[in-house]
Task: structure prediction
Amino acid sequence: MGYGPLVRATTGVTRLWTSDEAAPDGARHAFYDATTIFPDHVVGRVTAVAALAALIRRDRTAGDLGEPTCTSPRPRSSSTNSTPCSCGPRCSPAVPEIRDDTSVHAVYPCAGDDEWCVISVGSDDEWRWLTTVMDRPELSDDARFATGRVAGGQPPGLVERVSAWTRARTPLQAAEALQSAGVAAGPMNRPPDILEDPQLVERKLLRDMAHPLIDQPMPAETGPAPFRHIPTAPLRPAPLPGQDTRDICRRLLGMSSADTERLMTDRVLFEPAGRA
Result:
């Protein structure tokens, strides 16, 4: 058994994601991360791409798949470190230096109870646009903020000044005002908010699905992308444990009804509880 963080450590990713600049109190640098399951996500995507590649090859060659594929977290993670792994001690430095993010990213409080808006400022132009929306143009020329952003990190007082503006607006009002000015921003959504999100409603991302174990229909994702000429896939819940036992015994295993019933009586096979 293995886990993503362990694979990350053994393949060197954790080392690359750790800064040598220790915090003043001796604790780990803020950028250090020992829990991200980075390899799991990479392998899942590589596996999907490999399956699609095999299907494309089959269609182009009019043959069978014929492409045995082995996908493992460790080699996939190592491949992302190709330069340090191949150069080794010949590269100087083998491990790139990691610096603080020089942009301004934060979650800001808004009007209401526990309401928030995320704002991301990645350039001087975006900082000027933000100060214009806030009606605080003088902040764009404030040397304290400019110097602080170039050197890395957020200078004292920056978040407080932006928060003073966001607190007077709802998350949606703040986000729409900033987006209109070219600043990346978005309201913090909760699960119920997702159901009413105009973008998701327009794209028909969710649809009600009935489940035999749940009294009311629940929203379920219709698919990863809407297609123009491909019909929407059937939406149904995962089968209950044992739901297809009889069908599998009859169609795939060629068993008689008597043999199936005998194995069920002996509790070798089963079907959903309450179904006769």
Q: What stands out?
A: Residues 1-98 form one domain. The beta strands are 104-109, 116-121, 184-187, 206-209, 218-221. Confidence is low (pLDDT under 50) at residues 83-102, 147-152. Residues 108 and 162 are 8 Å apart (CA to CA).
